[in-house]
């Protein structure tokens, strides 16, 4: 069984740990950066690969990249990426601060290939981590191990599959985290009806992509809400995504944080991009003009039962306003139901009873373990998004270096 020993191991090569890699390159001593490793279970650093379509856009400014807010002079900025690939003029001419999602993904891959010291190893899935006297031993799916002094987890939450769909054939229930991979299979079966469950961005994106990619298919979105809502994106509301707001949120009493988080939710959860909602509404209107009925949104609806009958899924849908139910027969169910609220399986398996972090993202009472993107309840709603990546990565690297100095008695 192969074994490695590194100073720092980061699990997951998403934006959080790529920002950490950039911070290591710029802030850590060269020897420590060169003795740092990121492992990623996927074959590359593609971002949101299952929802990556040419028309999808980010809702975040390009200035909230991996490093600009921490170090605008960095060679790893999104602007420098555009310059390096010869597309800066064209991007400026777009007149938009929000890039296409494919462009952000390409930027992240460019960064991953541009790192000089910090290594990334792909197709390596972490299955467990065990604390040791001097740090951690992490076991991979291939039975190899990595020992490290510091462990940073940036793995994201587990997909939420509502219990009502749990007994259905897995190939017929498609969560947004596997949508793009399975869309080709749907296209091959030429489905008659597709049901999309949810009312937020992932649900509306799957609805629109299914409508475009599956000609002749009826696409129905089922949502519990009274209607599809757009994000609350006023300049004042968006102040909660500034890195400086993290201190304000963290210093507040728990009950105040709870209330603030409830106030923040409409800026990111349960809503969609207004431009996409306009597109959907206009297409629905055009379909009515041409006597088509391919695209529909059913509001105030609860799916209370789901069964499999032959090649079909039969959903029992209750109208929340009348209490009446009806059946919807479909070829597949697409779930835009988000993610489990608790920590992902890898972290639960650590056996830590209270997985909370301090201000510098270090798990309380656990030596040298840091969590990225899982700390909304203590650090605010921006923690799971792109907005604080650069600043947070710098704070974690600084804390790790300070911890080493204290441990080594310097």
TrEMBL record:
<dbReference type="InterPro" id="IPR036188">
    <property type="entry name" value="FAD/NAD-bd_sf"/>
</dbReference>
<keyword id="KW-0274">FAD</keyword>
<dbReference type="Pfam" id="PF13434">
    <property type="entry name" value="Lys_Orn_oxgnase"/>
</dbReference>
<keyword id="KW-0503">Monooxygenase</keyword>
<dbReference type="GO" id="GO:0047091">
    <property type="term" value="F:L-lysine 6-monooxygenase (NADPH) activity"/>
</dbReference>
<keyword id="KW-0560">Oxidoreductase</keyword>
<dbReference type="InterPro" id="IPR025700">
    <property type="entry name" value="Lys/Orn_oxygenase"/>
</dbReference>
<keyword id="KW-0285">Flavoprotein</keyword>
<comment type="pathway">
    <text>Siderophore biosynthesis.</text>
</comment>
<dbReference type="GO" id="GO:0006879">
    <property type="term" value="P:intracellular iron ion homeostasis"/>
</dbReference>
<protein>
    <recommendedName>
        <fullName>L-lysine N6-monooxygenase MbtG</fullName>
        <ecNumber>1.14.13.59</ecNumber>
    </recommendedName>
</protein>
<comment type="similarity">
    <text>Belongs to the lysine N(6)-hydroxylase/L-ornithine N(5)-oxygenase family.</text>
</comment>
<keyword id="KW-0521">NADP</keyword>
């Amino acid at each position: 069984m192969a074994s490695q020993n590194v100073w720092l191991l980061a699990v997951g090569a998403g934006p959080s740990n790529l920002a950490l890699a950039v911070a290591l390159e710029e802030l850590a001593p060269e020897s420590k950066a060169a003795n740092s490793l990121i492992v990623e279970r996927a074959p590359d650093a593609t971002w949101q690969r299952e929802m990556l379509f040419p028309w999808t856009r980010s809702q975040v400014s390009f200035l909230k990249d991996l490093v600009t807010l921490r170090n605008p002079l960095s060679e790893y900025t999104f602007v420098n990426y555009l310059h390096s690939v010869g597309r800066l003029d064209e991007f400026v001419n777009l007149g938009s601060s929000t890039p296409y999602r494919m462009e952000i993904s390409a930027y992240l891959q460019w960064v991953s290939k541009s790192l000089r010291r910090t290594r990334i190893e792909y197709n390596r899935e972490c299955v467990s981590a065990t604390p040791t006297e001097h740090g951690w031993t992490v076991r991979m799916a291939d039975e190899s191990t990595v020992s490290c002094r510091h462990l940073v987890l940036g793995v994201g939450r587990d997909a939420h599959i509502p219990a009502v769909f749990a007994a259905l054939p897995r190939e017929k229930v498609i969560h947004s985290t596997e949508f793009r991979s399975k869309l080709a299979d749907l296209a091959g079966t030429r489905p008659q009806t597709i049901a999309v469950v949810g009312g937020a961005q992932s649900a509306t994106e799957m609805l629109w992509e299914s409508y475009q990619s599956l000609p002749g298919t009826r696409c129905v979105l089922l949502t519990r809400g009274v209607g599809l809502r757009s994000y609350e994106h006023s300049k004042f509301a968006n102040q909660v995504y500034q890195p400086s707001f993290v201190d304000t949120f963290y210093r507040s009493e728990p009950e105040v944080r709870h209330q603030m988080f409830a106030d923040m939710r409409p800026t990111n959860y349960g809503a969609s991009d207004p431009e996409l909602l306009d597109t959907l509404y206009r297409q629905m209107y055009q379909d009515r003009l041409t006597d088509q009925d391919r695209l529909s949104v059913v509001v105030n609806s609860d799916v209370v039962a789901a069964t499999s009958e032959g090649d079909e899924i039969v959903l029992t849908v209750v109208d929340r306003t009348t209490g009446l139910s009806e059946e919807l027969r479909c070829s597949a169910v697409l779930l835009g139901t988000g993610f489990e609220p608790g920590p992902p399986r890898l972290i639960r398996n650590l056996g830590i009873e209270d997985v909370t972090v301090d201000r510098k993202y270090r798990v309380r009472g656990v030596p040298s373990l840091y969590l990225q993107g899982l700390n909304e309840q203590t650090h605010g709603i921006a923690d799971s998004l792109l907005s604080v990546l650069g600043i947070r990565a710098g704070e974690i690297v600084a804390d790790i270096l300070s911890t080493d100095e204290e441990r080594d008695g310097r």
